[in-house]
Amino acid sequence: MKILVLGCGTSTGVPLIGCRCKVCTSENPKNKRLRPSILVSENNFDILIDTAPDLRTQALKFNIVNIDAVLYTHTHADHIFGIDDLRMFNYLKKQDNKFIPIYASETAVNFIKDKFDYIFKEKTESSKPYLITNIIKESLEIKPGLFITPIPVYHGKNLINGYRINDFAYVTDVSSMPESSLSLLKGIKVLMIDALRFDSHKTHFSIAEAITVAEKINPHRTYFTHMGHNIDYDEIKEICSCKSEKLIPSYDGLSIEL
Ligand SMILES: [Zn+2]
Ligand SMILES: [Zn+2]
Ligand SMILES: [Zn+2]
């Protein structure tokens, strides 16, 4: 399985528009973070997690030409507003069935159908993505040997989905995790987790909270994502390597094999 980080930035992306801080003006490409999204590929089956507003940029930057399924974590703007760009992946599909299945919680599916109603109308004059919605509540074998398990986590007061895909888990936009969800992550090899900033936040894990949870779950490697402009790549890399070789900050374009 291969994971490609398409964006590991917070909702504003990094740099922030108009910000002159050290990280926003840094020339280190690893301090340039698009909105949060990853591509998980297994035997030429490509799963996109979330359609960030930067989806078009990400697809061009990383030469993504195929998407077989989309998993949505939740419906905040930084995770869904690239949905219309899925159109191009419909066009690129060679087979007759050009529909792309999308998977999300019932709340998220209802929200998407409501806010992007043009996508789900039978007839429209202009072009639109062709998507089929699926509510995901429990583990699903999306193709032989590839299991997707939704991991319910709290993002502030909202219960949203992280996802376990075989031995990998992506848990972004999380501020607390029920014990039952921690149990669903037993035995994973790689975890990618929300680590917004050093200070605590109402709806996201801080770096320290992300580390505490990573220690509980104890995967071989833990990667941080959804990072804001308070986090300088070289600094956080140094902090991580002092704590444990298992902790790794991600950057856009990072490719992980497992
Ligand atoms: Zn977010
Ligand atoms: Zn800044
Ligand atoms: Zn969010």
Q: How would the global form be characterised? A: globular
Helix content: 10-25%
H/E series: EEEHEHHEHHEEEEEHEHEHEE
Mean pLDDT: 96
Helix run count: 8
- What structural class do you assign from the helix and strand content? alpha/beta
Bound molecules: zinc ion
Summarize the structure.
The chain has 258 residues and is an alpha/beta fold. It has helices at 55-61, 77-80, 87-92, 106-115, 117-120, 179-184, 207-217, 233-243; strands at residues 2-7, 37-42, 45-49, 69-71, 100-104, 131-135, 140-143, 146-155, 158-165, 168-171, 190-194, 221-225, 247-249, 255-257. The site of one zinc ion has 7 residues, from helix 2.
Give the topology.
Layout: E1 2-7, E2 37-42, E3 45-49, H1 55-61, E4 69-71, H2 77-80, H3 87-92, E5 100-104, H4 106-115, H5 117-120, E6 131-135, E7 140-143, E8 146-155, E9 158-165, E10 168-171, H6 179-184, E11 190-194, H7 207-217, E12 221-225, H8 233-243, E13 247-249, E14 255-257
Parallel strand pairs: 3-4, 4-5, 5-6, 10-11, 11-12, 12-13
Antiparallel strand pairs: 1-2, 1-14, 2-3, 7-8, 8-9, 9-10
Bound molecules: zinc ion (3 copies).
